[in-house]
Amino acid sequence: MVNSAKNLTAEQVSQYTSALRSYQEAMWTNLGKMDLTNQQAVSQDVKIDANFPNVESADEIEKALQNLVNMASQKASSSK
Length: 80
Prior knowledge:
By secondary structure, the protein is mostly helical.
């Protein structure tokens, strides 16, 4: 993944991050509409399979993904 990440541009990282944020927001919106009263548990496993062909450094991807994790954590905490 790191080798393919070297070719990702900052603009593409921003586009991927923006798309992930949109998916995350849609997930929270739909989750809020669900009736969870009859369910035992909600799976929280998430798998992200992404290629970053124009990234100059793996740090760019790492920072973008860490930011996404932080945003998800903050959103989850504020929803309780």
